[in-house]
Amino acid sequence: MATISQPSSAAGDFAKPRRSRLAVVWQFCVQNPLGAAGGLVVAVMILMAVLADVVTVYDPTRNNFGAMLEAPSSEYWLGTDQYGRDLYTRIVYGARTALLVGFVSAFVGATLGLILGVASAYFGGRFDLVFQRVMDVLMAFPLVILALAVVSIFGTGTLNVIIAITIPFIPRCARVVRSSALAVRETPYIDAARACGFSHTRIVLRHMVPNVMAPYLIMMTAAVGQAILIEASLSFLGLGVQEPVPAWGLMLRGGAQEYAESAPWVAIYPGIAISLAVFGFNLFGDALRDWLDPKMKV
Amino acid sequence: MKVQCSRLLHLLPAALLLAASTSGEPAQAQQPKKGGILKFVVPDEPPSFDGHRETTFALAHPIAPFYSTLIRIDPEDKTAQNYVCDTCTEMPKPTDGGKSYAFKIRKDVKFHDGKPVTVADVHATFQRIIFPPQGVSSARKEQFGMVESVTISGDDTLVFKLKYPSGAFIPALANPFNFIYAKATLDKDQHWYEKNVMGSGPFIFETHEAGALVKGKRNPNYHHAGKPYLDGFEAIFAKTQTLRVQAIRGDQAAAEFRGLPPKSRDDLVAALGKDITVQESDWNCVLLMTPNHSRKPFDDVRVRRALSLAVDRWGGSKDLSKIAIVKSVGGIVFPNHPLAAKKEELEKLAGYWPDINKSRAEAKKLLKEAGVSDLKFTLTNRAVDQPYTIVGTWLLDQWKQVGVTAEQKMEATGPFYASLNAGNFDVALEFNCQSVVNPLSDTSKFMPTDGAQYGKFQDDELVKLHNAMNRTADEAEQRKLMRAYEKRVLDEQAHNLITLWWYRIIPHRSYMKGWNITPSHYLNQDLSVVWLDK
Amino acid sequence: MLRYVLKRLLLMIPTLLGAAALVFLLMRLIPGDVCVLRLATGGGSMDPTVINNCRVELGLDQPYLVQFLAFIKGLATFDLGKSMWTGRPIVNEVGLRFQLSLQVAIMATLTAVLIAIPLGTISAVKQNTWIDYVVRAFSIAGVAMPSFWLGILIILGILITSKAWFGQPWMPPIKYVPLWVDPFYNLSMLIWPALATGYRYSAVATRMTRSAMLEVLREDYVRTARAKGVFRKLIVRRHALRNALLPVVTIIGIEFAFLMGGLVVTEQVFNLNGLGKLFVESISNHDYNMTQALVMMVVAIFAFTNLVVDIVYAWLDPRIRYSR
Predict the structure, then answer these.
(1) Is the ipTM of this complex over 0.85?
(2) Taking the model in full, what pTM does it have?
(3) Which of A242, A244, B390, B489 is buried most deeply by CB count within 10 Å?
C-alpha cells in the first residue's frame, strides 16, 4: 500500500517545520536526476506548445514551393518539407496535437480506470467478476485494431483519435488500480466508515480513491507517453489528423519516406520529437514512481 | 558479383544505350531475346479478377497478361493510336453507312485449358459487357451506348450493329479490360471469372498469393507466333511507394507500371545511371473537384465558380510537378489532342486566367455575393498519396487565400466511392482516368446522367451538347461543340472543376525492353512483346 | 493445480464470448457495406439488384441476432466461413499470413530475449555505474522510439551502408518465401522488421529483468551466498537469474501475444504480407467475417498465452497461491 507521506507538524519531539513545496520539488530533483531531466524536457515541450505563436515565425500550413526541401539553415532552423513549410514551426505546433491528445487520453482513461477499478474492488462479488471479464476482453483486443475500429466508426480527426486512444487505457489502469484498491479495502478504517453509515459513493470517493493515488498517477504519466506514440502511429497510418494539420506521425508519413535519402531532415526531426517527448514522460514517470513508492526503488 | 558482369557488358553497346537511356527511347536495333522472368511491382491489389467489372490498374497489371481481347492498341506502336487485331483476322471497314462492323475470328486461338476460342465465346463476352445479365456488373456498359446488337454470322464472324455511326466505338472495343471469356463457363456461372482465371493470352495463370503476388508462365500455344518472349512474370503487390522505388533500385523488380513522381525518377537515375531507362508521357488521367450540387451552398453556381477561381493552376503546375505525378494545365480534353483547348482558349475560362490576383478577387466577390465569405467545408479525398493527398493539400492552401477554410477527409478507395455514390460529401476530389485517348467518349463522365458523375445535378443543355458532339463526323464541328461543352462544365455552370492533368514517368531497369509507354496505365500491359536483355 | 487450470479454462469462455459480441457490434457500427464497396469501386455505376443479390448471398439481409448466432455456431464448430471480400475460405487467407507473422513474432521475441536478459542482468549487477546508465538509456530509448520510425531509419541505413560498402544499393527482398524453401532469402527479408520490433520489446524486457534482478539480489539468500564466498557469476546464474526470470517470462509471453496481429505499422513500412495488414484491410473493406475471425484468433491467443504463462509461473514458484 502506498501513501504519499508528509511529515506532520504535530509529531511531538520530532516536530520539523513543514517542508515548502519548492523544497519538496528540489529534493525530488536531487534524488532523481534522470527524472528531473525528463521533467525539464516535458516542461519545455509544454511551454513551447502553449507559446507556439511566440517561438515560431512561419505559418505551419502555408505552402511555399519556392522553399521546397531546403536544408536546415539560419532561415529554416530544421529545414523545410516538400511543400516548403518550415519543419521547426510544424514540430512546435505538432507538439500541441501530441500533448493535447496525450494528456486528455491519459487523464480521461486513467481516471475512468481509477473509478472503475476502485468500484470493482470495493463492491466485489458478481460485479467484480463481470467487470474483470469485460476488462479482459478489452485488454485482449490489439490496441491498434481497436483504435482503427473507433476511427472507422466515428471518422478521423483529433477528438475521435482521443476517444480511440482512451478506450484501451481504461482496462489497463483499472487492473492496476484494482490490485491496490483490494489491499486498501481490507484496512480497518473502511470497515469503520461502513459502520458509521457512510454511503458507498462517499466511501469510494473520499476514503478509497485517495489511497490509490500513487498507482493512479504512475499509470497516468506512463499513459501520456504511450498515448503520444499511439497518436503518432495512427496519424502515420493516415487515421489521425489530416494534412495540412501539423502532427508528428503525419509528418513521417509518405513524404518523409520518399525524401529520406535526399532530404533526411524531413524524416529525422519529427521522429526525434516523438522520441524525446515519450522519453521525457517516461523518465519523469519512472522517477515519480520511485519517489512515491520507496519499496519499488531500484 | 552479378551486377558487375552486366556492367561490363553494358560497356560494349554503350554508345547506343547511352543515347537510348537518356532520351528515354529503348533501342530498337536489337533482336528480342527469349527467356527470363519479368518481376514488377503493383501498388494495389484488385478486388476481383473480373475485367468486365473492374476499372482499376490493380487488375490490369497482374491479370491482363492472361487474357486476349478482340482488338487492341498495337503494342509496338509508341503513339498508341493504332488499332490492330488480337483475336480477329483483320480490322474491318465499317459498312452500312458506318453502322455495321463484322469481325472474323481467328481459328487458332485456344484457351489455356486447350479448348478453342470460337465466335460464340467472343459473342458471349460482348453480350456480357454491353448487355449485362441480371446480377452482373459491367463497368463499361455506357461506353457502348451506340451499340444496338451483337450477332453471330456464319461460323466465325461477329457482327456489331450500331444505332448511329460513332468514332468512339472502335476505341471502346479496344479497351484492355474486355477480356474474352468462355461461353460454356459463363453459362454455368456468370461470376466464375471473379475468382478464377482462364484466358487465352500470352501467359498462363500460375499462382496467386493473396496479398503478395501473382505469377504467370509462358503460353507455348499463343496465337501470335514467336511471342511472348518472356518465360514468365511475377507481379508483386507493394502498397508503399518508397518500397516500390527501392525494389527497382535493389533490382527486386524491373519496373512499376503506374507512374512515379519526378523525385523518385531523379533518385533512381542518380543511383543507377545507365541501368535505368526513363520513359515519360502525358497521362490520360486528371483530378477534378466535384461539388455536391445537392448540398448548400454548392447548389449556388457562384460558390462553385469561386472555388475554381481561387486556384492558381499555372503556378501549381510548376510547383506540384516537382513532387507529384501531375503536370499539365488543361481543360476537359487530353492536353495536346486536336480537340483540346489551346492556351489562349483556356485562359478565358474561369480558373485559368493568367492573373491569379484578379481571379482570386473575383472569387472573393462571388463568395460575398452568395453570402458565404467565410465558407467552411470538408474535402472528401482518396487516401492515396500520389497525387490525391498532395493535390488536396495544395487545394486547401489555395482556398485559404480567398478566405475559404476547408479540411480534408481521407477515405480508403471502398468507403470513398461509397460516400460519393451516396452523395455523402461536400466537395470530393476524384478522377477521370480513361485508357485509349478518345475525348469524345472520355468526356462523357461530365454528363449528368453518367454512372461516374457524382455531382448530383440536372443539365439538359449539357446532354444536348454532348450528344450533338458525338453524332457529328465533321471535326471542326466537333471542336466547336467541345469548346461549348467544356465552357459549360468548367466555367458557366462549374459542375466539375479540373485541377491538373497527370504526367506519367516510368523509370525502369534498362534490361527490360520492348515495353513502350502510352498515355494510359491500362494499355500495353499484356507483356507479350516485352523481353529481357540479360 | 488441475482445478485451477480448469477454472481458468472455463473463465476463458465468457471472455471469448464477450470479445465475439464486441467485435460483432463494432463491425456493424462502422458505416458502410461490403457489397457496395465490392461492386462500386472504380466509379462504375451501381445496379441495386446486383447489390441486393450480394447481400443475400452473404447473409447480410438477416436480422442481427441471426447473424450473431450463425457467427457463434461457426466459431464453435471451427468453421470460420468465407471472406466477404474475396469469397475465399478464411482459413486459407489467414494461413498464408499466419506463417509470416508467426515467424516475425518469434524472431522479434528471440531478439528481445537475447538482448534483454544479458543487458538487464549486467545493469542490475553493476547498478548505478556508467554501464547501468547506458543500458537504462538504451532501454528507455527503445520504449520511446516509434517502431515505424526505427523501421524507416533501418531501411535508410541499409541503403546507405550497402552503397558505401558494395557500391550498389541493396534492398531486402519484398517477396515472402518460407524459411524452409530458401532460408537465406527469408532471413534477409525478415531480420529487419524483427530487429525493429525486437528492439522495442527488448527495452521493456530489459527494464523488467533489471528491476527483478535488483529485487532478487537484495534477498537474504543471495547475501548468504556472497558471505559464503561463492563466485559472483555463480550467484547470478544459479540463484538470482532463475528467480528473477519469472516476471520477465510473464512480460515476454504477453508481448508475444500482442505481436500476432498487432504489427500493423511495421508491416506497412516493410511491406510484409502479415496479419496486421490483413486486419487493416478487412476493417476498411467491411469484411465482417474476416475481422471477426481475426479478432477471435488474436483474443484466443492472448487468453491462452496468459493462461500458459500463469501456469508456468505457478509451477515454477510454489509460493504463489491463486486464491481468487
Answers:
(1) no
(2) 0.83
(3) B489
